[in-house]
Write a sequence for this structure.
């Protein structure tokens, strides 16, 4: 049986430990100690990622979450009101993703208490997720045997399963114009800000269609009021659930920059990188089907949803594993209004326990 009081206590303990991305030393040590206490074999790496294993019989399952949190996230003081945990309003809460870690630890507690037979479990708790999936990208995943698994880095009602996420391109561009005195000889200059402005207004941006989005997020350039600016830097991105749409959108952004530069007699350096690949699962896929069955066994109607964001799951699916995100109930994440209902975390833990039991 899931012990809601213990689950809540674990969660409160974890959010009280500061763990901004890049400063995971302390939380990683605490989690390693807890996992060892629960009988798991624990390994950590230089990034403070944790891989822990519980022996068992049957097909191995992966359970994963991330240990780092966004800012403002130091000195978090959780406040529980009517079964919902909030911060004191000056920081985030850190339910993203310590609600996921608390769920995993509670499931391991129950399995140990019941001396229950389970399939082999591989628990991955990554560092530096929020700053670009750095921990999971640096993790040596070659030793992971699980082909299927569940991550706990999503919100919404219990039973919500994130089954698709977009591929994501990041674009960096530098427009090179030509500097000149703005009053004495402007005709000798090439204004890089004008080039950037023309390029950005020519690009389709925002919501392109149901599956595709694009953004120019920052623009920096110019030295002084009276100098024709010779350099502007732009940072942008595009995401889509469909590879072909992502390529088409990225090409439009690149071409807008190139043609504006050409028109104005400037040049532009453009760098496009794949931040991560998307994934696209349906109820026909094993992980999804089994999670849905676990939900229904508990009387919870599962709901399959897409997301516009990336997570560690993108990286593992690209490695050929089949992992989905299951809601822990976390809400308003990355804001000081972040909160989570204890009953939602408990429901999530029940689903996972059922998933594990059905897999043995
Ligand atoms: Zn997260």
């Amino acid at each position: 049986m899931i012990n809601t009081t213990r689950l809540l206590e674990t969660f409160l303990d974890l959010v009280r430990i500061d763990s901004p991305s890049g400063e995971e030393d302390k939380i990683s040590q605490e989690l390693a100690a807890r996992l060892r206490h629960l009988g798991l074999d624990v390994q950590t790496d230089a990034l403070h990622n944790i891989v822990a294993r519980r022996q068992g019989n049957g097909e191995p399952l992966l359970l994963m979450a991330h240990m780092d949190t966004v800012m403002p996230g130091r000195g978090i003081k959780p406040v529980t009101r009517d079964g919902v945990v909030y911060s004191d309003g000056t920081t985030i809460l850190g339910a993203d993703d310590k609600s996921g870690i608390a769920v995993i630890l509670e499931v391991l507690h129950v399995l140990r208490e019941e001396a229950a037979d389970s399939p082999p479990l591989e628990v991955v708790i990554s560092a530096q997720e929020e700053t670009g999936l750095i921990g999971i990208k640096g993790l040596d995943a070659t030793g992971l045997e699980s082909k299927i698994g569940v991550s706990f880095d999503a919100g919404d009602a219990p039973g919500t399963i994130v089954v698709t996420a977009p591929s994501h391109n990041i674009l960096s561009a530098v427009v090179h114009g030509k500097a000149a005195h703005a009053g004495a000889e402007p005709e000798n200059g090439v204004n890089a800000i004008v080039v950037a402005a023309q390029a950005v207004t020519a690009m389709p941006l925002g919501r392109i269609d149901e599956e595709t989005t694009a953004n120019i997020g920052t623009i920096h350039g110019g030295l002084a009021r009276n100098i024709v600016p010779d350099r502007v830097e732009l940072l942008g991105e595009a995401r889509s659930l469909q590879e072909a749409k992502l390529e088409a959108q990225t090409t439009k952004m690149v071409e807008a920059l190139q043609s504006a530069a050409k028109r104005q007699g400037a040049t532009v350096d453009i760098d496009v990188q794949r931040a991560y690949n998307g994934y696209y699962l349906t109820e026909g896929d094993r992980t999804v089907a089994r999670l849905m069955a676990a939900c229904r066994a508990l009387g919870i109607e599962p709901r399959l949803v897409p997301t516009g964001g990336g997570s560690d799951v993108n990286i593992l699916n690209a490695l050929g594993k089949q992992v989905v995100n299951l809601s822990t109930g976390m809400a308003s994440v990355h804001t000081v209004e972040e909160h989570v209902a204890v009953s939602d975390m408990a429901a999530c833990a029940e689903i996972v326990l059922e998933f594990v039991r059905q897999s043995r």
About this structure: Residues 243-264 form the longest helix (22 residues). Residues 66, 96-97, 129, 153 surround zinc ion (CB under 6 Å). The chain has a mean pLDDT of 97. The two ends are 17 Å apart (CA to CA).
